[in-house]
Fold this sequence. Notes:
The complex is a heterotrimer, with two copies of chain A and one copy of chain C.
Chain A: E1 2-11, H1 17-26, E2 31-35, H2 41-46, H3 48-65, E3 72-73, E4 77-78, H4 80-104, E5 108-111, E6 113-118, E7 121-125, E8 130-140, E9 144-146, E10 159-160, H5 162-167, E11 174-178, H6 182-194, E12 197-201, H7 213-225, E13 229-231, E14 234-242, E15 245-252, E16 255-261, E17 263-266, E18 270-272, H8 279-282, E19 305-307, H9 318-332, E20 346-348, E21 353-358, H10 361-366, E22 371-377, H11 382-386, E23 393-399, E24 405-412, H12 415-428, H13 432-437, H14 447-456
Parallel strand pairs in A: 1-2, 1-8, 2-5, 8-19, 10-17, 11-12, 11-17, 12-13
Antiparallel strand pairs in A: 6-7, 7-8, 9-18, 14-15, 15-16, 20-21, 21-24, 22-23, 23-24
Helix pairs in contact in A: 1-9, 3-4, 3-6
Chain C: H1 14-23, H2 41-48, H3 56-59
The structure holds flavin-adenine dinucleotide (2 copies).
One flavin-adenine dinucleotide is lined by residues 11-17, 34-37, 41-43, 47-48, 51, 113-114, 141-144, 162, 166, 183, 273, 277, 309-311, 316-319, 321 of chain A.
Amino acid sequence: MATKTYDAVVIGSGPGGYVAAIRLGQLGKKTALVEKEALGGVCINWGCIPSKALIAAANLVEDLRGAAERGITSEPKLDIAKLREFKDGVVKKMVGGIQVLEKGNKVDVIQGTATFVGPNAVEVDGGGEKTRLEAAAFIVATGARPVQIPGFEFDGKDVWSAKEAVDLPEVPKRLVVIGGGIIGLELGTVYAKLGSKVTVVEALPTILTGVDPEAVRLVQKSLKQREVAIHVNAKAKGLERKGGELVVKVEVDGKEQAIPCDKVLVAVGFRPNSEGIGLDKAGVKVGPKGFVEVNDRMQTSAPSVYCIGDLCGPPLLAHKASKEGEIAAEVIAGHKSVRDWVSMPAAIFTDPEVATVGLSEEQAKAQGYDPIVGKFFFSALGRAVAIAHTDGFVKVVGDRESKLLLGATIVGPEASDLIAEAALALEMGAYLEDVGLTVHAHPTLPEAFMEACKGALGEAIHRVNA
Amino acid sequence: MATKTYDAVVIGSGPGGYVAAIRLGQLGKKTALVEKEALGGVCINWGCIPSKALIAAANLVEDLRGAAERGITSEPKLDIAKLREFKDGVVKKMVGGIQVLEKGNKVDVIQGTATFVGPNAVEVDGGGEKTRLEAAAFIVATGARPVQIPGFEFDGKDVWSAKEAVDLPEVPKRLVVIGGGIIGLELGTVYAKLGSKVTVVEALPTILTGVDPEAVRLVQKSLKQREVAIHVNAKAKGLERKGGELVVKVEVDGKEQAIPCDKVLVAVGFRPNSEGIGLDKAGVKVGPKGFVEVNDRMQTSAPSVYCIGDLCGPPLLAHKASKEGEIAAEVIAGHKSVRDWVSMPAAIFTDPEVATVGLSEEQAKAQGYDPIVGKFFFSALGRAVAIAHTDGFVKVVGDRESKLLLGATIVGPEASDLIAEAALALEMGAYLEDVGLTVHAHPTLPEAFMEACKGALGEAIHRVNA
Amino acid sequence: APAERSGRKVLAAPAVRAMARQLGVDLGLVHGSGPGGRVLKDDVHGARNGHAHPPPELTAPA
Ligand SMILES: Cc1cc2nc3c(=O)[nH]c(=O)nc-3n(C[C@H](O)[C@H](O)[C@H](O)COP(=O)(O)OP(=O)(O)OC[C@H]3O[C@@H](n4cnc5c(N)ncnc54)[C@H](O)[C@@H]3O)c2cc1C
Ligand SMILES: Cc1cc2nc3c(=O)[nH]c(=O)nc-3n(C[C@H](O)[C@H](O)[C@H](O)COP(=O)(O)OP(=O)(O)OC[C@H]3O[C@@H](n4cnc5c(N)ncnc54)[C@H](O)[C@@H]3O)c2cc1C
């Protein structure tokens, strides 16, 4: 077995691992990046990127349906194979980009499955051929995989995970989505817009648990307008096959219901990929839920091993994985980097989009603040009215005493983009007044953020203050 | 003649005046707002807002045309009357909103033309009825109007100003746009997308003078793809009418050309509305180009008179007018407010959009900085690829020594919204590193701003650093 | 101070925090001269040069 020696070896090439490898290369470390499947991990291959390609296309079709009031009528025809091809092209482009970036930063990309054989060595099984990689430092970024539930084992045919759903094999007439979380609703919305009759089954009392209830209400309203049925407090009990069709058995308030359908998408969570990679051999401690335990410098219990991304715990977000990848790489290179972010924004690509950063009103209270809240509705904003996307609002939370900005929730057009300004504001330690006094171009959507901040101070211009 | 007495009177209800009046009301001042035409001024009635309603609709039609690669085909039909109705509805909604806001802040809205009769009094001619308004303070916000050029006098029929063009009376087969500035190109693009054959005639050597040349190149490329003809160094000499059609005589490099067309849009600039309102009676000094001279507290040479918005000089932007309106109102209410903004963003709603804030590389050099530049192309950004809008880039300028962020130019999807984060960064005195270290949600467009800032420091992740 | 409640010890932008780490300066001991006590790069430099608690007249707003 051939042995290669590196300064650092990264295992897993998702947004955590591939970014860590780039940064290590940038910092002059001789680096290998090991990946057993496709470069880019979940995010690039069947997560963030391809799902957003589908969402954007579905939104365009949807925009058209609502465009008659603007004098635009059309009967859009949808070629699913073509859309799938486009989505595949997007993925291919991004994967190619990562290849170029790794090469440009002198990172060796090695195809195969890595397993620790000790704290300073892994074996890579590249399909027959095995290689031993030795290094002073390892970054483990093997991510997470969809949780299965009994009776709904993924078969790639009738029961889809997000992976199959994102692949868009077809648009089923009737789709049951088990799990009313972010991924279930993002993909459920796509299929609803593309023509499926969608039913969402959620075990908890609300969809999008943890998200601002007012935001949830708007998403729920829009789902209903698209004839998406939503069952909350509903437990998926089992799946039956009856003459060509599927029947999902659901228990709601102790009563059983049967929902006939053509496909089932199960999106009830992710579990970490911490087994089978020899973490014990390396001396890495794994926590009770399977997440690897790390400190704020991404260090595990083994001095040579760092861990980042989905594998080391929530929030399971690509940009969290990338940020941790940069930190781990910098720590390995001797920098004093540390996980000290104030803001970790989260974007939900439902319709309308929802994005949050910092503290919600409840969280602020729980942390002992006396919060003040400012809110501005897009229906009062010129830009939103002009582009005919007026559903939603910006809500900001501040500290009554110091007037510091503590958090923001944005629901509405481009919310995923608009949250960036709020994230920067939080990270900079901005006061509500800092945002309120900053000139915002007219007519643009971020004016709503400015108005919400002014509103929290009782000084909104385009809303009569209470 | 009836006389009414106020703490403050605002003349003109554009984004300068109506905001000033709201703020005065908020601060407890007894306020009147005088308007001779429609509430909202140019911006609401035939500027920012309705133009963007048309632009958004035209973009939707355009997006469709390019959607075949995504499997979406359609033959959109356009009902111009319906689109005009929608646009009128948008204007009506915003005007109604202003009415509610003025009322909610206890501002008296008075219809009529105001003329100063002394430093503390105006006469308002409301069509027959005259009223005298006396006040300790006046805010003049009478704005600006389109410049006419000899031979192309606006007749509302053949020769349009922006006002007629925004009203969308029809989609002419052939439209000549005189003036390749922001307004000419924004509206020219709308008509091109709606089906006109558009020719742009610009007297200077480039369209969009003053804008980053690389940005201009992208806009130019996209105009050409839409078969818009562009003549630079071209002087419009005169207009002839020949058997039902119009012929625009243009001189390019000393040679005369004739461009036959159906309508002409003249968009060569704006001049201030400083005549005929008795500014001399109030003791207000007017500068050589007709702009009223003010200090940074919006005070004119007359102690009782403040001036804001287009009337007091460039940049002629709605948000500049509004900001100045707030400042004037606050100064009148005894606050220590002052025009001390670091960033005055500007957004150009061409295709792609262009937005700028702070210093360009050239301006930074001229101010004695040794600038460093970071650039990131949307074609390398997951979100942009997924939404199929990859034209454009983010370019940031920083100070080599201190690493302070000095300015940003954004060309591409949602540039007008994305500039807000850069504006806040500048206003907060952010370093390039502040933006680079701030977590940006994935996959979103503002990641490009983060990457550009990192790139200026030689630490971009998704671009191989030079 | 209320800022402590959000888990953030001191009001400082990320570049300032990074700089303090690099220089081994404890931000908690630095007097912030920015608005609301925000710690600026100059404050960190000052602290490093031995002025962990600069006299008030040096930090009063200009
Ligand atoms: C449908 C969907 C949509 C999503 N949308 C978003 C979104 O919009 N925004 C967002 O922030 N997040 C989103 N996510 C979540 C995001 O994809 C993850 O948070 C992110 O991919 C985690 O990155 P990672 O680097 O930790 O791991 P992963 O992306 O999971 O990558 C792990 C990689 O490690 C490889 N690997 C595992 N074991 C080994 C081994 N032993 N040897 C070699 N290689 C190995 C795997 O093959 C895989 O490629 C979405 C997820 C899904 C499923
Ligand atoms: C097509 C077009 C698109 C534009 N797009 C944008 C854009 O996207 N973003 C942007 O920032 N800017 C844009 N502008 C520029 C913007 O409209 C102006 O900068 C803005 O309207 C200036 O505001 P103002 O309050 O100074 O004056 P105005 O909006 O010009 O308002 C002045 C008001 O005063 C009234 N008035 C004048 N004299 C008297 C009198 N004697 N008595 C009573 N009332 C009087 C007028 O009737 C008018 O209503 C655009 C302009 C046009 C034409």
